[in-house]
Write a structure and sequence with these properties.
The relative contact order is 0.13. The chain is elongated, with a radius of gyration of 21 Å. The protein has helices at about 15-30, 35-40, 45-55, 60-70, 75-95, 110-120, 135-145, 155-165, 185-190, 195-205, 260-275, 280-294, and strands spanning about 1-5, 5-10, 10-15, 120-125, 175-185, 215-220, 230-235, 245-250, 255. Helix 10 (about 195-205) packs antiparallel against helix 12 (about 280-294). The chain has two domains: about 1-95, lambda repressor-like DNA-binding domains (434 Repressor (Amino-terminal Domain), Orthogonal Bundle); about 100-294, Endonuclease, Chain A (2-Layer Sandwich), CATH 3.30.870. The strands form two sheets. The protein has a seven-stranded mixed β-sheet, with helices on both faces. Strands 2-3 form a two-stranded antiparallel sheet. The chain has about 290 residues and is an alpha+beta fold. The chain has twelve helices and nine strands. The two termini are about 40 Å apart.
């Protein structure tokens, strides 16, 4: 688990995916009883490069990964393929010149948006807010007005435009698979006033009809539940459960869940929250009732 977003070292960047890949190579090397110097000789490099690779500071070449896996005695072809896929995604993310890189107010969220842009599946648990990809412009604007992070109207409008632009991932030829579980309190919190909130709930009803969007509501009647610890997202880049990266944004820091154990814990938590929630059809009925009650 790491706090913060991408880190910089000179002209290199340590990314979430790069650190995850580097950690896997580190575990393989230590399990095989090899030194960094021995590994470096196998790929005709210096031990400094191995240090940078295992720390996620540099993009990794497929031939280097294959040679190192063979040197470490890895015989599972599927596992090696998984590492190569991870390296490819990391390289693509590093060189991508996405629109988010030109938004000065994006800040630490830029790395998350970059991964959201290449993700195939996102699961989100939201305790207090409508999920970002399902928010209306007026709802986002109301959040901006209430936040200490933005004080100038122009900054808020940039944030609104960025949020709406991200929602394009839900449409198109290869739309993002999006599964949201939302606490009932987030639906009843009158953000921006009754009119804004009613429009937000109606929009939620509309997008929930998309075949790639699954919205569930965790109702008040379940009482105490395991999601009180906070909201989080789980991002997948291939098949569900493969190469998952977890993300939780706090008041003063961001937490990335990069390890298999941590992500498995959050995945089980999401599944439990989903099972406790209303079925999609019943969730739609509750959202509709709350909207009409506004």
């Amino acid at each position: 688990m790491n706090r913060g977003t991408s880190e910089s070292q000179g002209n290199r960047t340590s990314t979430v995916l790069g650190r995850r890949l580097g950690r896997e190579l580190y575990k393989l090397r230590t399990a095989a009883g090899k030194t960094q110097l021995q590994a470096a000789k196998e790929i005709s490099a210096t031990s400094t490069k191995i240090v940078k690779m295992e720390s996620g500071w540099v993009p990794m070449r497929d031939p280097d990964i294959r040679v190192l896996c063979e040197f470490y005695g890895v015989t599972d072809a599927q596992f090696v393929t998984g590492l190569l896929d991870l390296a490819r995604l990391d390289r693509e993310r590093r060189k991508a010149k996405g629109w988010w890189q030109h938004v000065p107010t994006m800040g630490g969220l830029a790395e998350y948006v970059a991964m959201e842009d290449v993700a195939t599946h996102i699961r989100t648990w939201q305790l207090a807010l409508i999920p970002g990809l399902l928010q209306t412009a007026d709802y986002v604007r109301a959040l901006g007005v209430s936040s200490d992070s933005w004080t100038h109207p122009d900054e808020i409008e940039v944030m609104v435009a960025s949020r709406i632009k991200r929602q394009a991932r839900l449409w198109g030829d290869e739309p993002l698979e999006f599964h949201a579980v939302v606490w009932e309190g987030a639906l009843r919190q009158v953000t921006g006033g009754p009119d804004v909130m009613r429009s937000q709930l109606d929009h939620l009803l509309e997008v929930s009809q998309l075949s790639n969007v699954n919205v569930q509501v965790l109702p008040f009647r379940v009482g105490a539940h395991p999601g009180f610890s906070g909201s989080f997202n789980l991002i997948s880049f291939a098949e569900p459960g493969a190469l998952d990266v977890g993300y939780a944004e706090g008041v003063a820091s961001t937490v990335w869940m990069e390890g298999a154990d941590g992500n498995e814990t959050y995945s089980r938590l999401f599944d439990r929250l989903s099972r406790l929630s209303l079925a999609p059809r019943d969730s739609v009925n509750l959202i509709d009732a709350i909207s009409k009650g506004m």
